[in-house]
Batch of 2 targets.
Target 1
Amino acid sequence: MSSIFDIFRRSLKTGLVTTGYPDTEEPAPSGFRGQVQIDTSRCIGHGDCARACPSRAITVSRDGGGWTWELNDARCVFCGLCAEACPESALSLSNECELAVRDAADLITRVSFVPGSEGKAS
Amino acid sequence: MIDGEQMNADTQATTRPAAPANRHVPVDLDQLPAAAAAVVSELDARLAFMVGEDDRAGSGSYRLAYTFAPQSGGWVTLEACVDPEQPAFPSITPLVPAAHWYEREVQDMFGLIAEGHPDPRRLVLHDNWPDGVHPLRKDFDPSIPVPRVEREPYQFHRLHGEGFVEIPVGPIHAGVIEPGHFRFAAVGEAIFHLETRLFYTHRGIEKLAEGKTPAHVLQLAERVCGACSCSHAVSYAQAIEAIAGVEIPARAAAIRTLYLELERLYNHLGDLGNICAGVGFAVGASFGARLKEDIQRLNERLIGNRFLHGVVRLGGVRRDLHAEDAIDVEQTLDGVARDFKDFIELIMGSETLVERLTTTGVLPAATARALGAVGVAARASGVDLDSRRDHPHAYYDRLPMPVPVVVRDEGDVKARLLVRSDEVLASLAIARALLATMPAGPTAVDLGAIPAGFAWGVSESPRGENIHWVRVGADGTIERYRVRSASYPNWPAVAAAVPGNMVPDFPLINKSFELCYACLDR
């Protein structure tokens, strides 16, 4: 039978396991599936990502010769199917996981592509 | 799991036994109860699940399929058609009690009356849902909001007599847990009756799946449950792979099995801690939480998600297990195994704790059988059942050792604790055996176009057998999806284990079953 002293001894042996996060930085591991990132130099506006997305978090809309890529973090389920679907490997899931915002509009990332130039985020 | 078709022979495992028979028997509606009773008694079978379908557009009728698991293995399904002009069927519940919730659910969701059901009250739909609106009928349009109505409130069973007190608890609870209402009838501290009112977390997943592609629905399947995500994804993927007639590569099956065991480990370790929390033994609760965290961080490093989202793809797994991953798993499990010994010594060494667990919340074996309980709840009550052995899936029939199935007879909280504790050791052994014998080869196979058909997949989650039943339509999208999580047959078992105990023991008993509210409801 264990006494209160045994329990105390075990606790001392274990020591402190709580980490200092968020006061100290603790990045998610490299393979973590966090916020979707777009490499604007690679996107060709093909739209495979939008079709692969099960929660309709990504939309690609054509306008004239260019297109707009839009990501809604409020809808994203971080499955990574968009990144797998992209033929140009323009999308990746980063280890960015601190996604809270004060303004709901900040949940949306919009990148406009005009022919002949790289996309511009807004 | 198999839709009647013979699977391709696996060159790597010529010794695998042939899959047991899967029989499908059409019956006339009025013969259904007698046929069901005969299957149960003559084949020593348990009711595994029941699926309702609205096939008015096809065959012109509703379909009910009751699937039983005979003791000898395999499945037997009784299928009956219900005429839309007479939307009713004879309930089998008086003869096969395990059918009680399935039939009430079909009554709510399809509007088919379960005639002769001993408890015909609503189950899934709550008081403010209008009469005559049945969400799983094909003509129900989920995009149109359903008006909320004032109806007669749900009638709880009541006990009458001097000294009876009714104690309503929930649906909102003090802890950050899911919603559920518990209605106790007690005299002083002694509980005479407990009635649960659940289904507060309906997300309409089965309806949402209709018309979606099999790959998109995998993402839904993975999110049916927060704690058994990998098992749900594996069950669903197996159903689709069976429809496609494809066997996944051995390496993919072995990797799925490894993650299924990591899922069991992090759940069991956390649940052992939760039992300590149920009696206010904070040191034990923290110990369990710490060990659970070790595995969840491993999950995150391996697959990028603490809850094992993203392990499965249709036809295999999404990420291979690299050499450095295998070393990480081995080192983490070594650490957990070392500390786990200490953890169990701490729990079992505390006399007052063990006394509190012993003879508390007894689920008798006969009740567990009658209600069709599965998983830890069944095994701790003397029911020898584990789908890893009984309905081999993933890599379980190719392990270097038989799956260790832990069965105890006591049926109390302590038995459920000890089953989990022995299963932790078994999972550690299975995981190590997998690392040592991991087959080489591809991690996925292309399913191609998925033909029309139906099948179901089964896997053993930490809570028991999770069953996903899927019908794919002619256009390749999901036509009907039924998720039967392990919590579904086990919740009625909780209510059966509580009477005869004290009110303060309820949280402890509830935690010893550790069921989900959301995956029950879907």
Target 2
Amino acid sequence: MRQSIIQWFRFASPQSFYPLAGRMIPWFWASAIAFGIAGLWISFFVAPTDAQQGEGYRIIFVHVPASWMSMFLYLIMAFWAGLGLALNTRVSGMMAQAIAPTGALMALLSLWTGALWGKPMWGAWWVWDARLTSELILFFLYLGFMALQAAIDDPRRADKAGAILALVGVVNIPIIYFSVKWWNTLHQGSTINLTKAPSMAQTMLWGMLLMALCFWMYSIAVALTRVRAIILERERHTEWVKHALE
Amino acid sequence: MNAFLATVRRDLLLALRRKSEVLTAVFFFVIVTSLFPLGIGPEPVLLKKIAPGILWVAALLATLLGLPRLFAADHVDGTLEQMALSPSPLGLLVAGKILAHWLLCGLPLVLLAPVLGLQFDLDASTLGILTLALFLGTPLLSLIGAIGAALTLGVRGGGVLLALLVLPLYIPALIFGAGAVEAHIAGLDAGGHLSLLAAMLAVAAFFAPWATTAALRIALE
């Protein structure tokens, strides 16, 4: 038991995590491409044309996985940040910092594709629907996290301050989500109901799941690549980095 | 508890010797709410409809304006470090500072809101709900804002960054605060909104001083 704990903490050191991440990255890229090709093939060629929405609905194969990822990534980011704060492991903070830009990208992608889908379907780029609004707020939370980390020069302090912000954000996300939802039902502004989606064909579900896996693999690969860069930047004064770059 | 009251008293005394700082945020609140009718037009029906939202957004911004002052001066002259070293728990002292901040920045807004509400043609019972909602909501703003103020302490571009961090977290307070008034205007019961606001205040009163203390300790390292 003691042995296995030591094994896990071995990778909490940047020096041993750096080569491990380097070995994992090609596998995640390869699976991202494989899932992506399969998912796109199903979503463009296999999935039937929707009876109500025509071909335009196919954007959900990107939109839905991007929305899922934007939410998962915030949780994962907060998990790493909290771990870093509790155990004082350096790589955890770096992981949180590496995940944030990908999470923000996913939130933006989800908003953007949502707008592209909304224009032909609802006739509006944007409606103040509960889901759209909370996704926008999630995007703001990512921006706040990144801005705070960028503003603090000392990386250790940046990690810890970011960790507190991420944890406060995680506590607030459910509160924000439900308040926005109730706000929306109180106002009854739009008559569009997103929650009553027509039952999905089996192939559509498969396409979406494959695309979600592709997005997962892509996010992990990009986050690991970014964390390698952060490790090199922060550990540039050490001997092993000088050897690693030779 | 003595340390708590002493901190409140000290912060109030310090602020009252430089009254202009406190009054600036209050006048900001008055000016911002007066700008909206000028921008939108003097139609009473429209103004009455958007009044709760305007007053609440202005209250958020006015609170935000006072937040950088919460810890900055004590951080610069080293008082904050002495507080961290003192035998009383830092969380208690921080809670005292937050209470003092609310008394200086939040309470004036609560007291002014009915007067400003008259400009928007709100009737007496609506003004009562508005005041009550702000009374429950502004401490919540001070509590959440304190976390942001502690995180951005001594950081480059702290003021703008603070807005970016704190404003998304203020959204629930805005929704339920303005929602209570709107529900009352629409003839519905505002009790649900006010209860939720009070519930959030209770949660924040417990957690926010604690998170603020953690953030301050990081800033002091």
